[in-house]
# Entry
Amino acid sequence: MIIVWRVTQQCNLTCPFCEWDRSLPRQRTWIAGERVLRLGRILADYQRQTGEPILLSWLGGEPLLWPPLNELAPRFRELGIAQSTTTNGTTLAAPKVQAHILANFSELTVSIDGLADFHDAMRGWPGGWQQIRDAVIKLATARPSRQALKLRANVVLMRDNLPTFPELCHELATWGFDEITFNALGGRDRPEFFPAHRLRPADTRQLSEILPGLRAQLAAQGVALCGGTGYLARIDASAREERLPIKDCAPGERFLFIDEAGRISPCNFTTDSYSVAIDDINSPADLAKLPAIFAARRQNAPAMVCDDCPSTQVFAKFAA
# Structure
């Protein structure tokens, strides 16, 4: 089971496509570490009782800026729960952060939007691309093996950076990344940015044309370029403004999302509709009941978002 936990809304960059852009005037919240550890112990019991491996992925905002993580990551490691995180890379150059990642994480995803000039301008971080490059190369060199720490780059694709996507992928392959994933720019977080930068049908056609050859070239370098045919179909449907409803996503059976308020749901798009408070989870048996609870709530009062499902894990984003 994969559990993605957004623990903080705080971020230190100014990405114009992201709702956590630090320049936006909004209240920022995060979850207390003790609430997280309480559920962690239940997750560990669930994993032992069921034999089902759990991967807990910390998300933000910028999760490496969440103070409790320094103490909690070793605790979760001791509990036997595998961990990953997605980071903007601003802290990766620090020796303490590198040691923390190498000691506690089995996966690290780094957000990179393009080649140096584009990435730095989009993130509002002059010199950031080079800092990330140096830090990732150090991590790739220091890790005991690829199995010990998987390194992944994730790219937000928009019409601005699509032409240089192949060049970017080949560059990232030289840093030591094992996988490259991509998301299409979405419009929910920053609708004022979306129209001028979104992928159009012509862009998705271009993407589908370049992917097979690019995937083969990267595979020869030992790098997996992820994104299955269903994922490309999802991206193309969005570009065409065609709806893709999902009748049954098996909510909560293989994937869970938890937000900074402590609400657990089948995905981050259905939190307001289907969620259960983590404080109401008191045992592995309570965790095991979640899929039935989510399915019943979906049947009784389906969320509108399910009529055009945007959840990337449903459409095999990580398929090679």
Notes: The CA atoms of residues 63 and 265 lie 19 Å apart. The first strand starts at residue 2 and ends at 6. The mean pLDDT is 97.
